Amino acid sequence: MEVTLNHILFLSTALFFIGVYGFLTRRNVITMLMAIELLLNSVNINFIAFNKYLYADKLDGVFFTLFLIAIAAAEASVAIAIIINIYRNYRSIDVDDVDSLKW
After folding, report:
1. Which of 74, 81, 88 is nearest to 36 (CA)?
2. Is the pTM of this model over 0.70?
3. Virtual CA dihedral for 78, 83, 84, 90, nearest 10 degrees?
4. Which of 16, 22, 31, 59 could bond to 42 as cystine, CB 3.0-4.6 Å?
5. DSSP alpha helices (H): ranges in 1-103?
6. 43: Cβ contacts below 8 Å, ≥ 6 apart
7. CATH 2.50.20.10 describes domain 5-101
């Protein structure tokens, strides 16, 4: 069985909506961060899939993916530093418990 573009896009869409669901329903900051990482990974899958099936002779999708992976790593390190600082000040990382994190 050959993996087509539709299969890859279905996987990417599923990951994207799992990430959106996780971000909107969870109140723990670390789980919200993991949901954002799922969103970014679904975008990476789209970049690679469209690069393979539409522009197989170019590497633009690969370069965008590498750039996005670097951005995601920087975002995760800054977010974890902020989460550690919030935990030190408030002794909780639950969004509902910390007043300054409420919408």
Report:
1. 74
2. yes
3. 150
4. 16
5. 5-25, 29-54, 60-90
6. 12, 16, 68
7. no
